[in-house]
Amino acid sequence: MTELEQYQKTTELLNMQGEKPTDEQVQETISIINDRLAYKPINRHVNAAVKEGYLKAVEILESKEVDFNKVDASGLKTVQGRAIASLACDYLVGLCAKNTLLMVPLKDETWGKHKRELEDKLGIKEVEL
């Protein structure tokens, strides 16, 4: 069984996204990332890595580049920024759930409220253990 097949089987068992997103889903994802980029605390120095990753993720999603090796990541200064950009490529081929790409936390005292708003927008329900 290939890695992709293993991932798809796992996502099926966990009820996660495991298929390539439609053009409409990609546009919705870009819109949500742009909303996150408009959220003021992302401009704080401690969130610079998240911001640079999301800026590159938007470029990747708009160009629909699925191979991270073909992405010009030379301008990305942080590991977290490169990781977020890589998630965008994985999302385009179905190897990353949309929620994983969109829910990268910020370092901010209002993150809890912002997180709940994102969860509502994405339809994420709180799980009680």
What's this entry about, in short?
The protein has 129 residues and is an all-alpha fold. It contains 6 helices and no strands.
Describe this structure in words.
- By secondary structure, the chain is mostly helical.
- It has one domain (21-119).
- 58% of the residues lie in helices and 0% in strands.
- The protein is built from six helices and no strands.
- It has helices at 3-13, 23-38, 48-63, 79-93, 98-102, 111-122.
- The protein is globular and about 45 Å long.
- The termini are far apart.
Search tags:
129 residues, mainly alpha, 6 helices, globular
Structural class: mainly alpha
- Classify the beta-strand content into a percent band: under 5%
Give me the count of strands: 0
> Unreliable runs, pLDDT <50, ≥5 residues?
none
- Helix percent band: 55-70%
Shape: globular
Cα Rg: 15 Å
Q: How far from one another are the termini?
A: 32 Å
User: How many domain regions?
Assistant: 1
Q: Helix-strand pattern, N to C?
A: HHHHHH
Average pLDDT level: 87
Reported for the largest beta sheet, the result is: none
Note the total helix count.
6
